[in-house]
Amino acid sequence: MNLAGAEPENEAVVRLDRVSIVFPIYQGGARSLKKRVLFHGSAGRIGRDADDQVVIEALSEVSLSLMSGDRLALIGANGAGKTTLLRTIAGIYEPVLGSVVTRGLVSPMFDISLGIDSDLNGFDNIRVRAQLLGLSPAAIERRLPEIAEFTELGDYLEMPVRTYSAGMILRLGFAVATCVEPEILLMDESILAGDAHFISRAEARIRRFLDRASVMVLASHNLELCRRWCTKGLWLDQGRIREFGPVDAITASYKNSVVA
What we know:
Strand 3 (45-48) and strand 4 form a beta hairpin. Helix content is 36%, strand content 27%. The protein has two domains: 2-66 and 75-103 and 231-259, Rossmann fold (3-Layer(aba) Sandwich); 122-213, 3-Layer(aba) Sandwich (Rossmann fold), CATH 3.40.50.300. Strands 7-8-9-5-10-11 form a six-stranded mixed β-sheet, with helices on both faces. The chain has a five-stranded mixed β-sheet with strand order 1-6-2-4-3, covered by helices on one side. By secondary structure, it is of the alpha/beta class.
C-alpha cells in the first residue's frame, strides 16, 4: 500500500508488519525444484502450504519500520532474501501474510535495464522509462539533455538499443533511473557495475540522489559500501531477520559469522 503525500512527523515512511513471501513450486522433481529455487534467487526454507503444495518460504514474518532519514543496508548470504525484500517494498511481490505500507514516491533502482526496448533508440527509451517513473512529457523533455549527457553515449542515442553493449545499456538505464526525486530509494549493488570511469561518476550521482531521498534501502555484499552509505543494518538469514541495529554493529557481527 502506498500513501501519497508527505509523511507526518515521527511516522514511519516504510512499515512491514509480519510479512511473509512464498513461491509455489509446481513441479516437484529434484532438477526442476533446484532450477525454480535459483530462478527466484531464494535459499529460503522449503515447506508445504495448506494444500500440501511445495513452496519456498522466501521471507518469513519480517517486521520493520523505517523513519525519515534512515539508510538501511540489507546484509546476508546469497539467497537470504535481500532482493525479495527490496521487491516486496517496491510492490512487485504481494505478501501472503502481513502488510507493507509506504509513504511517498518509491524509486526501485535494481534491474534498471529491465524493460528497455531493444528496437527503440536511446532517446525513445529514455522517454518511455521516464514516463513510467512518473515524469510528465514536458518534464522529460526538460531533463532529456542532462540525461543524455550523463550517459556519454553521444550519437548512439539515435541508434537502436540492440546495437549497444551491456555496459552502454547499463549507462542508459542508470541515467533514467536517477532522473527522478524519490522519497523511498531502493537499490542493489548491481547499479555500480561497469567500467571504473562510469562507476566513479555513478557513485557521485547516487550521493546527490541520496541527499534528496527520505529513506534508502541498499542490498549489498560489500560491507564497506554498507558502512559508508547506511546508518542501520538488517541481517537476513533464510528469509528471517537475524539481527537489526546500527550498521557498524550488524556488519561486524555478520563478518564474524562468516569468518568463524
